[in-house]
Amino acid sequence: MNSASNDPIDSSAIPGARAEFLAGVRAEMPLLLGIVPFGLIYGVLGLAAGLPGWAIVAMSVIVLGGSSQVVFVQLWAVATPFSVIGATVGVVNLRHLLYSADMAPYLSSLPWRWKWLLSYLLTDEAYMAAVRRFRDGPATAYRHWFLLGTGATLWTGWVISTFVGVFVGRAIPASWSLEFSIALTFIALLVMSVRRKSEICAALASGAAALALQSLPHKLWILAAAAIGMAVGLVVHRWWDEK
Q1: What pTM was computed for the model?
Q2: Which has the closest alpha carbon to 99: 126, 69, 139?
Q3: What percentage of the chain's residues is helix, strand, coil (to nearest 5)?
Q4: Tally of CB atoms within 10 A around 95
Q5: Distance CA 100, CA 16 (A)
Q6: CA distance 114 to 27
Q7: Selection from 139, 106, 103, 142 nearest residue 119 by Cα
Q8: Is 238 exposed, middle or buried (0-12, 13-18, 19+ CB in 10 A)?
Q9: Gyration radius of the chain over CA positions
């Protein structure tokens, strides 16, 4: 690895790093069409759940996990026990371990300060926009700047949209039904990511379980559907994909 790529803030001297970063920004921009209304709705839901505005925005800055943040405020609003909130949010965020495992081979040679930064920015949309670049693009010394570009763009859009949702979200007419953008965002990500038979089976099993188990209290259907989807995906992967 070229030593010039070891500094996560020194891009001025390396045209290749700048080009990769800007390419990542361009790849992420279309996904902001789903991220911005998602952030607006999260801000509104946070206020409705009784959270102060500063805490809602701080969660977007620190947690940077849209789906887990929405689940958190929904469970908080109905006085769900902390143990259930923690378990549900934890399961929802388990997908980040899969993203990290997939990206690890491409980033293993980077210094730890780069790994910490990119792991923080490795969210759903940033991963989906960057993974094709890593899998199919040239293995240049500065390709990690592409992921930095996707992650920084997502972070900016998510935090700003949350801020706007907190301060002006109440003025958005309910007839706009912006909450539907949350489902659309993740459907788009699912379509982009599913390639193997095991992934298709996992998605179908999880979706079917989510619909069938809606009656469970405290939104426990999320935990159950996630567990069923992962189990089905693992079994199909071992007995079908590997053959």
Answers
A1: 0.74
A2: 126
A3: 80, 0, 20
A4: 17
A5: 24
A6: 21
A7: 103
A8: exposed
A9: 19
**Block residue for tokens 């910490």:** 116
The candidate with the shortest Cα–Cα distance to 8, out of 124, 133, 151, 127, is 151
CA–CA gap between residue 162 and residue 28 (Å, rounded): 18
Neighbours of 105 (CB within 10 A): 9
Q: Which amino acid is at 145?
A: W
List all residues 6 or more positions away from 5 whose beta carbon is below 8 Å from its beta carbon.
14, 17, 110, 141, 142, 144, 145
Q: What are 147-184's pLDDT values in tens digits?
A: 999 999 999 999 999 999 998 876 766 666 666 666 66
Q: Are 222 and 91 in contact (CB under 8 A)?
A: yes
Q: For the chain (length 243 residues), average pLDDT per consecutive 10? A: 46 71 94 85 87 93 89 87 87 83 91 94 90 88 94 96 86 65 66 75 89 84 84 84 58
Residue 136 exposed, middle or buried by CB count within 10 Å (0-12, 13-18, 19+): exposed
CB 161 within 8 A of CB 39: yes
